[in-house]
UniProtKB/TrEMBL annotation:
Domain EF-hand, chain residue ranges per copy: 187-222
SUPFAM superfamilies: EF-hand
Annotated stretches, region: Disordered: 89-139
Gene3D superfamilies in UniProt: EF-hand (1.10.238.10)
GO molecular function, a single term: calcium ion binding
Top-level taxonomic group: Bacteria
Lineage, uppermost ranks: Bacteria, Pseudomonadati, Pseudomonadota, Alphaproteobacteria, Sphingomonadales
The entry's keywords: Signal
Low complexity bias spans: 90-138
Secretion signal span: 1-18
InterPro entries per UniProt: EF-hand-dom_pair, EF_Hand_1_Ca_BS, EF_hand_dom
Protein name: EF-hand domain-containing protein
Length: 223
């Protein structure tokens, strides 16, 4: 009889603990939303504008598309040069620490080679490696803030500077050697211009930091 009572009590206790455990799981606060939300939800999308008012429409219609295209190409080339140079510096820093020098001055370790200087042919080979490695010439769009896009540091964004972020253009697709000017098509220039002038609230034909923030906020949508 005592054995039966003990078994019954033990079973009841086990059920009670199981119920408490289930309740604790359901009521446990979630500190990290990323555990439940796909990381892509917070990625930056593309700007969403609206119907242009008459003044905005006039500014869009009279936009100097050739000048915007030329400025975009110039900015793109400068960005590509910067990124290749930074990749070369990173590669050089990594390689400089991979070997060591003995008392005779000979290289030993991971950087050693029987072919001597030919193995380390200089920055030209590293440039080829970095530019041909599939690295995008543009950083991720989420990393493009107002200060980075403002290529001439005048405190405002032109259509061409804005287009770097606003238009899905990457001349390295399908391969870096296929990149040819002009990098933007007429349709892509118009695509950038339509949302640019929509967010140009003061009609200055430039975007201030606040106006760009409005464009960026319009792009913060689930992907």
């Amino acid at each position: 009889m005592k054995k039966l009572m003990f078994t019954t009590i033990a079973s009841a206790a086990a059920l009670g603990l199981a119920a408490c455990g289930s309740e604790d799981v359901e009521n446990t606060p979630i500190d990290d939303v990323d555990e439940l939300v796909d990381a892509d939800v917070n990625e930056v999308g593309y700007p969403v504008g609206g119907e242009l008012n008459p003044d905005q429409q006039t500014a869009f219609d009279t936009m100097d598309r050739q000048a915007a295209s030329d400025e975009y190409d110039m900015n793109y080339d400068a960005i590509r040069t910067e990124r290749v140079a930074n990749a070369d510096l990173s590669t050089g820093d990594a390689m400089s620490g991979s070997g060591s020098m003995d008392s005779s001055g000979a290289m030993s370790g991971a950087g050693a080679s029987d072919t001597g200087g030919d193995a380390m042919s200089g920055s030209g080979s590293m440039t080829s490696a970095s530019s041909g490695s599939g690295m995008s010439d543009m950083p991720s769009r989420s990393a493009m803030d107002f200060g980075w896009l403002d290529r001439n540091d005048d405190g405002k964004l032109s259509v061409a500077e804005y287009a770097i972020w606003a238009v899905p253009v990457d001349p390295t697709d399908p391969a870096p050697n296929d990149a040819k000017k002009p990098y933007m098509t007429s349709e892509e220039i118009n695509q950038a211009g339509e949302t640019f002038f929509y967010f140009d609230q003061d009609g200055s034909t430039y975007l201030s930091e606040q106006e760009f923030a409005m464009a960026r906020n319009s792009a913060m949508t689930p992907s």
